[in-house]
Amino acid sequence: MTDTGLPMRVPAPGLPPRIRIHEVGARDGLQNEKSVVPTGVKAEFVRRLAEAGLSTIEATSFVHPKWVPQLADAEQLFPMLGDVADVGDVALPVLVPNERGLDRALALGARGIAVFGSATETFAARNLNRTVDESLAMFEPVVARAKDAGVHVRGYLSMCFGDPWEGAVPVAQVVRVARALMGLGCDELSLGDTIGVATPGHVTALLAALNEAGVPTGTIGVHFHDTYGQALSNTLAALQHGVTTVDASAGGLGGCPYAKSATGNLATEDLVWMLDGLGVETGVDLGTLTATSVWMAEQLGRPSPSRTVRALSHKE
Ligand code: HMG
Ligand code: MG
């Protein structure tokens, strides 16, 4: 480490020059908090993330409020984010499971949504109260109507690398649902390692299988949870494959209330530290982002699990 709190820049071959970070702390992070974070604190969190240079900040979810009470204030929060647009060209996508959710999101002017499917039947049942195919049928009109309205659509796919109830998830099973999601008209696909069990070879194998099945790398993002400490290694494998969209959560917040073994996402600071060292541009200022996560940890009353946040905040 240097005195400046930044790693020494030593580029490595075979990596993209720039990537887009899809920041999920305000959604994936806060949906998993035991306490409900006040709406004003959430709005301040999103504004600070934008000031740190994040250009895609997933803001909240328009799901059933009883299923995810932590995000039940979506109607109050979303209109409070108007000033975030003043910070720069920031996209604020929201999760939407069905037409009811889409109606709520469109009524507030959302310009980006994400539907969220599962590669396994058990998680589809637990997270969406549907079979895999029933959930795809539920998404079909959502994606069609969103596209008609000129709204950007992301398709999440959970349990791509393993499932806490079903165990190993065959690559072919993931490819089938991924193709179906993209066939609905999603603009991008985010591969979820919901419980953080992936390892780099598995990531490369899934990406190659998706390419072979006609899903181009340019439409794929990766969404790693860090349960086994593999998220950064998995990300590097994905970047070496040509992926340029990486999901991460400020301070390493996160998990999934319907998959108990899921821990936080890859911490955005840990990702930016690695990418700054590699000379891969992200547009994110590590110091501002770390200060945001330190502030958020104070709001939550516990330290950030991010190693980079801890290292930088203990630095003199
Ligand atoms: P359901 O009980 O089957 O709902 O839940 P339903 O369609 O039978 O409707 C029942 C009632 O709920 C109806 O009201 C609907 O209007 C209402 P009634 O007519 O009885 O008065 N309702 C809604 N109200 C508000 N907003 C809505 C909505 N939808 C229905 N959107 C449902 C099905 C999909 C709604 C439910 O299962 C749900 O909300 N699930 C969300 C679970 C969730 O948010 N999980 C976390 C996100 S996924 C994740 O974290 C993984 C990810 O990070 C990637 C990774 O890591 O792998 C993305
Ligand atoms: Mg997640």
Fold topology:
Blueprint: E1 20-23, H1 25-29, H2 39-51, E2 56-57, E3 60-61, H3 74-77, H4 84-87, E4 94-95, H5 99-107, E5 112-118, H6 121-128, H7 132-148, E6 152-158, H8 171-183, E7 188-193, H9 200-212, E8 220-224, H10 231-240, E9 245-248, H11 268-278, H12 286-300, H13 307-313
Parallel strand pairs: 1-2, 1-9, 3-4, 4-5, 5-6, 6-7, 7-8, 8-9
The structure holds 3-hydroxy-3-methylglutaryl-coenzyme A (HMG) and magnesium ion (MG).
The site of magnesium ion (MG) has 7 residues, from loops.
Low-confidence stretches: none
SSE topology string: EHHEEHHEHEHHEHEHEHEHHH
Count up the helices: 13
Bound molecules: 3-hydroxy-3-methylglutaryl-coenzyme A, magnesium ion
Mean pLDDT: 95
3D structure, described in words:
It is a single chain. The protein has a single domain, classed as Aldolase class I (TIM Barrel, Alpha-Beta Barrel), CATH 3.20.20.70. Helix content is 41%, strand content 12%. Strands 2-1-9-8-7-6-5-4-3 form a nine-stranded parallel sheet. It is an alpha/beta fold. The mean pLDDT is 95. Residues 28, 31, 61-64, 67-68, 95, 97-98, 100-101, 104, 116, 127-129, 156, 158, 192, 194, 223, 225, 256, 258 line the site of 3-hydroxy-3-methylglutaryl-coenzyme A.
